[in-house]
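In response to the reviewer comment on reproducibility (Comment 2.3), we provide here a single inverse folding case reported in full, input and output, so that an independent group could reproduce the run without further information from us. The structure tokens appear first.
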């Protein structure tokens, strides 16, 4: 059978890349059209104010008249300001009291609500509801309840034979009362997070520990708590940041009083920037707070990393 001739193929001209480039440009333009509003919002509400406030912290400005460059004078004045020192002490005391107590109460309530009890869903809801309320609503509510003359709290104490208390109007009690109010509302968040973490504890570990004769205390110490370590680190960081930034509750209830006993750093910043018209001084205090928050986050991250390395070493 004779061989068929091999077909001759002629290569055509290469495809024109211009339509592909135009298509890519259209897609890029469309993507930027969708992304640009979010980018403008981030730039306008985050990056630009941060840079502007940093420059403002080195100036003497009231936000109305032209500002004057003063360098580090604002930061030197902060170091010598007794009002700022008092605000720092109040904030640290508030944080030291609130963070561990909120974690302790949250873990205790989560352990109770993790059992199969009647109306457990209702109890969980009632504990979480205060967390949903705004700090302004909480402040208004407790301002009425804790009013030294007409409040319901002193009325109950009077019926119990206890003398009336000053609560938010007493310099020795005001900060502790604010901590108690924040615990009432903020513990619910810890309860929800710990509940979710407790339900992820492997049942096989618990059953194995019980077979070895471990009681409830040993289960909590050697099985449950190590499993909850990442969640606890997160809650410590979250609650610490929230407590260092407290403002709404102080503004609504005490406005920093009485006698500055509840003046915290954020309220001090607001007072200096908008009440005393010393915006540069307030901006410098804000950056001191920002550095403190960064140190807290860095310390928690270091502790978490060391714990992870220690756990990996124990496994190996």
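Designed residues, in position order:
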């Amino acid at each position: 059978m004779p061989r068929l001739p091999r077909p001759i193929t002629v290569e055509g001209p290469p495809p024109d890349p211009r339509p592909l480039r135009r298509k890519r440009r259209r897609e890029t333009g469309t993507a930027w059209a969708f992304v640009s509003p979010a980018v403008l919002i981030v730039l306008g509400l985050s990056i630009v104010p941060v840079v502007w406030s940093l420059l403002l912290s080195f100036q003497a400005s009231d936000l109305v008249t032209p500002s004057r460059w003063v360098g580090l004078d604002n930061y030197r004045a902060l170091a010598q300001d007794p009002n700022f020192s008092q605000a720092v002490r109040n904030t640290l005391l508030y944080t030291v009291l609130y963070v561990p107590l909120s974690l302790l109460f949250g873990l205790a309530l989560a352990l109770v609500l993790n059992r199969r009890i009647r109306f457990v869903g209702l109890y969980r809801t009632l504990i979480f509801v205060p967390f949903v309320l705004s700090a302004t609503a909480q402040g208004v509510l407790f301002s009425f309840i804790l009013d030294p003359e007409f409040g319901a709290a002193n009325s109950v104490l009077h019926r119990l034979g206890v003398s009336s208390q000053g609560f938010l109007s007493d310099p020795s009690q005001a900060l502790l009362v604010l901590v108690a109010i924040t615990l009432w509302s903020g513990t619910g968040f810890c309860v929800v997070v710990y509940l979710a973490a407790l339900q992820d504890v492997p049942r096989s570990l618990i059953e194995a520990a019980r077979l070895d004769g471990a009681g409830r205390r040993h289960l909590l110490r050697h099985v449950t708590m190590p499993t909850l370590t990442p969640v606890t680190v997160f809650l410590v960081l979250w609650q610490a940041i929230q407590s260092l930034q407290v403002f709404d509750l102080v503004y609504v209830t005490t406005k920093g009083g009485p006698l500055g006993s509840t003046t915290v750093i954020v309220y001090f910043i607001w007072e200096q920037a908008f009440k005393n018209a010393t915006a540069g001084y307030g901006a410098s205090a804000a950056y001191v707070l920002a550095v403190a928050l960064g140190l807290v986050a860095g310390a928690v991250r270091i502790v978490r990393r060391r714990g992870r390395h220690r756990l990996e070493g124990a496994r190996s």
